Please model this.
Amino acid sequence: MGPREEAESIPSGVCRMLLSYDGGGFRGFAIQPDQRTVEGVLVAAIEKVVGHRVVLTVAGRTDTGVHAWGQVVAFEAAHDLDPARLMVSLNSMLGPEVVVRDAQLMPNDFHARYSARWRKYRYTILNRSVADPFMARTSWHISAPLDLDALRLASDPFVGEHDFASFSRKLGDGKSTVRRVFESRWADLGDGVLRYEIRANAFCQQMVRSIVGTLVEVGTSKQRPGDILGMLCARDRSVVGSPAPPHGLCLWEVGYDDVGTIRP
Model:
């Protein structure tokens, strides 16, 4: 019996896990040949514990260098799996770089991606004249003063349903770039720390980083808040700013309204 037949013969349910990781040491989430990825190390560790082949579903594939606090993954598991013991085993092998913060058995129709109703990302900027080495892995240091009022004005037009082709890395593949954004806002955390939060039903590749890069141009007076709607309508990648660096971005939370949201 091959690995696939063996996996299919195991009585199964679905195990859902809430995952956090520092993306700095990985070439993104998805498995890639000869590359160290979050999915690669996680699948290898799970298979070592459960003793059968594992295929993950994931709420959102993060790019190289992007972090997660509330990533959600799921896989088919034996009906007698103990999620608590699995969590302890995985954390002993993968922590603190990758940590499982919660694990539970779900109905068989649960899917980490397709069952999700929304995702929330956070982007952190350190707006000080001098960098902070203890925030360097998780924030974008910008020494030039940013106009927070302008940032807030420019973030408002993203709320609603729009075509985000201008803010998407991949075009022309036939996939829709229309997304519905529920929240788009800036918070001043004090001491030069600014946080951008955006929550939407789904995101295009590099969408958040492209939005933040463009908003920073507004904050430094290279663009105007009133230019954002025109950028959305243009459906042209060349009219927006360069993507913000990946290390300031974190997948913060995923909402599952039908089965209950896992809270960070």
Summary: Residues 118-253 form a domain with the Alpha-Beta Plaits fold (CATH 3.30.70.660).
